[in-house]
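Problem 12. The chain below contains 131 residues. Write out its predicted structure in token notation.
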Amino acid sequence: MTVLDRFRPELLSVLRIMAGLLVLQHGTAKYLNIPAGPMNNASPTTMSGAAGVIELVFGVLVVIGLFTRPAAFILSGMTAVAYFYAHAPRGFFPILNGGELAALYAFVFLYLAAAGGGPWSVDAAMRGRRA
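Solution.
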């Protein structure tokens, strides 16, 4: 047993919240212009704009922990597509093709799809009320 074992459920929730907030900022940049930058004013008819809708909607769901497993699964797929569509054509190595973040997101969200939202989630609160 390690020192952090007793915090494992809460750390799962922290991972979910942080991953959700980080992907959510991509959606807010594209559609709410927060923060201001090169991704602002995306069109939902483009690949990047469609990803922005997914990032915005499912990012919020992951942050609050509502429908965490399906939302994280969709985000995992979206980020995997982003990697293979935008980064992999530039080269094999993620560090060289700029795709390390997309690849990491894909696996973090896949883990969250399997593990769930943890104790600090709406999903856990709803399970508690039903029990």
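Discussion. The chain has one domain: 6-126. Students who got a different answer should revisit the alignment rule from Section 12.3.
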